[in-house]
Here is the input.
Amino acid sequence: MNDVSVSPNRLRGVIVQNLLDEQDALPVRIFECLFTLTFLLWMGRCFLTWRDWLTDAGIHLDNNDLAAMGYPSSWPTLEPWQVLFFGAAILIGALLLLWPKQVTSTLGLPRQILKRPAPTWARRAGLMILFGCALYAQRVDYMAAFTLNKLYVGVFGILTVAPGMRLYAETGRLLQSVSLLRVLQATLMLQYFAAGLAKMDGDWIKSGDVLWGQVQGVYRTELAAWALRHLPLWNWTVQQYLSLFFEVTAPLLFAIQRLRPIAFVLGIGFHLVIALLMKDLIFFSTQMWTFYALFITAEEWRAIGRKVMKGSRFTQSKHSMG
Here is the structure.
């Protein structure tokens, strides 16, 4: 009979390799850039109603109402002139994090393109500013922040306190502890799984028309109204159980590399339907899609980059010939 026991040294090696070792930071770097872009989109949407959101002109719950709901006291609102500084802080934080040389060095482009390595202080400072802005947006108006802003607070906080990226001089690539990647990957998988469990604890298994009823709520879009009029009830039942299956099995689908294409197809379709049928949830969908970048390896990202650059050079040569 074969010995299937795992030696302590081998187990220790697996743990170190998957949690403690340094590895190429490209997936994390691409994720944080995309994540920051979605934060800019979300803040841009919120700034359309900045008077109601950030100043006393809007309706804000007092501290007694917040305490009754289990929330801490809110932070002070802003004067109109202070709103400009808050918006500027968001833009400055994003620019520091998206520093052009940061992006160039991360992509592992030839070293002659780089006159000097990207400054690591810029990334750290940008993360700290964005964390502070997301936290203020959360505390100044809990009702306007929603769950996706809580995720911005949490992720920017994790990225801020995590060990920094280290430039490897010989290759020009950035390295970082793999533990950060695992924490961020787990964040996505646990979110899906927790949402699935909550739905199973509700009526999503008992009744096949829960999704059909929810789509008729206040978030209904014009496309959702059209679909409710023309699509049969069984279609909503199929979508309901398919989405429930995806959320409950997401940890397995994303953790096993061979199953990730299935996870990507189901996940992209899942959030695309949410974005199309429910008002303003496109911001939530784009936020969740950024996490998928963490499940694409550095080698796969560089292969994608080479194809994009090759296509760009081909397009430029056609224009020059024309």
